[in-house]
Structure to design on (281 residues):
């Protein structure tokens, strides 16, 4: 698809993922979307953001994809659920964007992270971008809910230096309630990453009343510790920065009155992960 077919008034760069973006690819036909997914030559991105220190080691450039198969009750970025809310971006344009930062990322011991949404909905585009990053010597990290982990072959995974694996909850019924989907394939992906000895950071969003069950966290911790390849646990406190997006998009929001976790609850959760030998922050 020619670049002039795309909206130009919205910049690819954003101040952060909490900027609301919607309907930016409404002009792209379903056939063009299917062709993009099949080739990986075109992707749909919420934005590129710079300077992140929480999406992998060092200072990161982050590409936020649109499209997600989950509907997490606590999602901070529901505008990224739909691919067509994002900007259609050719692989050439995305690679150029990445190239601008290649020296800075190395100086800051950082790298390039692809997050979402769920990046593996667009796994061919994501893989091309990671391969481009690796050819520039840039460290790569994939932030994924893991549901489509089997879309990446063992060889594909060699282009990914680090997987930031989001485990939402252990109990399958709670997982279904929380995300709308099953968690069996996610745990399977975690086991596969371990068998391949791939580096993993566990990402765990802590939501009071929803993901703070002591026993559930204990089971996630025991499982992840047993794998032997989890280098770090990032406990991510729930916040309300995305609340306005739910309102703006007209999606009923069940967590309207939920407060962020207390310092005590965050510390208790980190302590649970540490008690099985994991580094948790
Ligand atoms: S997996 Fe991430 S982007 Fe998808 S609904 Fe859940 S929190 Fe939102």
């Amino acid at each position: 698809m020619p670049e002039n077919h795309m909206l130009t008034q919205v910049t690819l760069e954003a101040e952060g993922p909490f900027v609301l973006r919607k309907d930016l690819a409404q002009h792209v036909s379903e056939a063009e979307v299917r062709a993009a997914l099949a080739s990986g030559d075109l992707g749909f991105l919420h934005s590129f953001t710079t300077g992140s220190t929480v999406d992998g080691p060092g200072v990161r450039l982050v590409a936020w994809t649109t499209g997600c198969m989950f509907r997490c009750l606590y999602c901070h970025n529901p505008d990224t659920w739909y691919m067509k809310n994002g900007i259609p971006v050719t692989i050439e344009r995305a690679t150029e964007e990445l190239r601008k930062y290649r020296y800075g990322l190395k100086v800051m011991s950082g790298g390039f992270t692809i997050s979402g949404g769920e990046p593996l909905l667009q796994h061919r585009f994501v893989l091309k971008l990671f391969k481009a990053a690796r050819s520039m010597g840039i460290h790569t990290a994939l932030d994924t809910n893991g549901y489509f982990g089997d879309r990446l072959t063992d060889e594909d995974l060699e282009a990914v230096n680090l997987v930031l694996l989001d485990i939402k909850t252990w109990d399958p019924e709670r997982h279904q309630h929380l995300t709308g989907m099953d968690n069996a394939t996610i745990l399977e992906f975690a086991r596969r990453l371990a068998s391949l000895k791939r580096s993993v950071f566990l990402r765990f969003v802590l939501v009071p009343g929803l993901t703070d069950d002591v026993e559930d966290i204990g089971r996630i911790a025991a499982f992840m510790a047993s794998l032997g390849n989890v280098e770090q646990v990032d406990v991510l406190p729930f916040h309300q920065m995305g609340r306005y997006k739910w309102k703006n998009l007209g999606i009923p929001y069940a967590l309207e009155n939920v407060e962020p976790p207390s310092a005590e609850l965050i510390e208790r959760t980190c302590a649970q992960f540490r008690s099985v030998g994991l580094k948790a922050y």
The chain has a mean pLDDT of 95. The first strand starts at residue 42 and ends at 52. The chain has nine helices and eight strands.
